[in-house]
């Protein structure tokens, strides 16, 4: 019998496929390896199942997006967890996460942890202003779990964030059935140890959630200027008014983005982070060009 379903867990070569409330244990056919394909959690698949026998995945349906670490597909949204302190809040790292998710076509939600550790009202107002600024760009920002939970219904959500920001603690609070181990924070390195052993989707608040490894740096996979431009929604929108189609918003005349920056329509911090990522892309290109020249 052939059925359609979604892979909700991958462990030790087995793929657990859920359909109509029932979970089936399956393996992948060898022809997937020959084609350079591999089923991952979140994939929609067609699989065979006979009573009292192991099922086999026959076909992978088209993916709308996917992550490599961990291997998971068809994600609706991602919660980026950033802490106020220990580790300190970083707009640069946050914008790198946002660029990565925009490029992947995954809606970003921002959750700020450790708000209770802020020393005074002035510091709290700083984060209120930050929330106001980023909501204007189009990002939802939450300071408490009750409001966050309401946004998980009918979505496949992954959680990511800087190591030590409290991601595992948050997940253990809202989804204790995941039984995640909290890595200790290293004072020397300022980061923790993630202990995820496998990838799995869990039911929570009417949706499905997955954990992702913690990390303090991010390969955001944007390696060209047009993609970088599109990964900053407010810059992409304003750039339609630039004189030159492939304007880099640095030295070109009649640049609508630089004008919007002067008019305080674009955050200076966002523009600064855009320039830093642009510089990294250009350095990578220069390094590649030099390498090719030496080879020739």
Automatic annotation (TrEMBL):
Described purpose of this protein according to its UniProt entry: One of several proteins that assist in the late maturation steps of the functional core of the 30S ribosomal subunit. Helps release RbfA from mature subunits. May play a role in the assembly of ribosomal proteins into the subunit. Circularly permuted GTPase that catalyzes slow GTP hydrolysis, GTPase activity is stimulated by the 30S ribosomal subunit.
Binding site for GTP: 113-116, 161-169
Cofactor: Zn(2+)
Span of domain EngC GTPase: 73-216
Protein name per the record: Small ribosomal subunit biogenesis GTPase RsgA
Domain CP-type G: 64-218
Enzyme class: hydrolase
Family named by the database record: Belongs to the TRAFAC class YlqF/YawG GTPase family. RsgA subfamily.
Keyword Cytoplasm tagged: yes
CDD domains: S1_YloQ_GTPase, YjeQ_EngC
Coiled coil: none
Summary of subunit composition and partner proteins: Monomer. Associates with 30S ribosomal subunit, binds 16S rRNA.
Record keywords: Cytoplasm, GTP-binding, Hydrolase, Metal-binding, Nucleotide-binding, Ribosome biogenesis, RNA-binding, rRNA-binding, Zinc
Pfam families membership: RsgA_GTPase (PF03193), RsgA_N (PF16745)
Binding site residues for Zn(2+): 242, 247, 249, 255
Enzyme Commission no: 3.6.1.-
Subcellular location: Cytoplasm
UniProt-listed SUPFAM superfamilies: Nucleic acid-binding proteins, P-loop containing nucleoside triphosphate hydrolases
Co-factor binding comment: Binds 1 zinc ion per subunit.
Taxonomic path: Bacteria, Bacillati, Bacillota, Bacilli, Lactobacillales
Flavoprotein as UniProt keyword: no
């Amino acid at each position: 019998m052939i059925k359609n379903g979604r892979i909700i867990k991958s462990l030790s070569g087995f793929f657990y496929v859920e359909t109509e409330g029932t979970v089936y244990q399956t393996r992948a056919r060898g022809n997937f390896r020959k084609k350079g394909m591999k089923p991952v959690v979140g994939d929609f698949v067609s699989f065979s199942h006979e009573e009292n026998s192991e099922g086999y995945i026959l076909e992978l349906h088209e993916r709308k997006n996917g992550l490599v670490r961990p291997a998971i597909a068809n994600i609706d949204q991602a919660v980026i967890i950033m802490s106020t302190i220990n580790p300190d809040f970083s707009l640069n790292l946050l914008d790198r996460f946002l660029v990565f998710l925009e490029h992947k076509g995954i809606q970003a939600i921002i959750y700020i942890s450790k708000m209770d550790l802020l020393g005074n009202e002035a510091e709290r107002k700083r984060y209120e202003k930050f929330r106001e600024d980023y909501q204007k760009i189009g990002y939802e920002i939450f300071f408490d779990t009750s409001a966050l939970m309401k946004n998980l219904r009918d979505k496949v959500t992954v959680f990511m964030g800087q190591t030590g920001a409290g991601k595992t603690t948050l997940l253990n609070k809202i989804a204790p059935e995941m039984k995640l181990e909290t890595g200790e924070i290293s004072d020397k390195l300022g980061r923790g140890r993630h202990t995820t052993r496998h990838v799995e989707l869990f039911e929570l608040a009417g949706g499905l959630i997955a954990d992702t490894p913690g990390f303090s740096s991010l390969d955001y996979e944007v390696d060209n200027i047009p993609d970088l431009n599109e990964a900053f929604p407010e810059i992409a929108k304003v750039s339609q008014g630039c004189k030159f189609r492939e304007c880099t918003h640095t030295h070109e005349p009649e640049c609508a983005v630089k004008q919007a920056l002067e008019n305080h329509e674009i955050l200076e911090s966002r523009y600064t982070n855009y320039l830093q990522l642009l510089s990294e892309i250009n350095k990578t290109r220069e390094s590649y060009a030099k390498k090719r020249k030496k080879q020739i």
